[in-house]
Write a structure and sequence with these properties.
globular; single chain; 153 residues; alpha+beta
Length: 153
């Protein structure tokens, strides 16, 4: 059976922490797959805030998720604090990719929980259509990017 593979960039320079809540736990007793998406969403908001941005700005333009991929590496439990490292790649005229590595520390051991990627598109919510990624976004994102700005996407 084929498995999803994510080519994680070496550069994941932004870090944040997100605590696992009891509501993140599923019937299996560990963090549910839907909660991982919510947790990386919070991490993405933290990252954007550090750059002075919001996911959806006052001008009704912002980001919309085009795709997401998750690869589970370990179990997370209520009370864990996830350390999330974030990087950027494939900055293009209309969007870019976020990469996330989620770990936690238990008993002085770092445990890899998951790796994820989300494809983000800049979007005009008023017009309900894709918009060009502003130059200031490209400049700020490029500090965290693995590669240079590309022309297609």
């Amino acid at each position: 059976m084929a498995r999803v593979k994510i080519d994680m960039p070496a550069k994941l320079d932004f870090t944040t922490q997100v605590p696992v809540r009891i509501t993140d736990i599923n019937h299996g007793g560990h963090v549910g797959n839907d909660s991982i998406l919510s947790i990386i969403h919070q991490a993405r908001i933290d990252f954007l805030k550090s750059l002075g941005y919001e996911e959806r700005g006052a001008d009704d333009k912002g980001l919309i998720m085009a795709d997401a991929a998750l690869v589970y590496k370990g179990e997370g439990f209520a009370g864990d604090i996830f350390d999330i490292a974030i990087g950027v790649a494939d900055i293009a005229p209309f969007g870019f990719d976020f990469y996330y590595r989620l770990t936690t520390v238990r008993g002085e051991k770092t445990i890899l929980i998951a790796e994820a990627k989300s494809g983000m598109i800049f979007f005009d919510y008023s017009a309900r259509k894709v918009a060009r990624l502003p130059e200031d976004w490209k400049e700020k994102l490029s500090v965290y990017a693995q590669d240079s700005v590309s022309e297609g996407k």
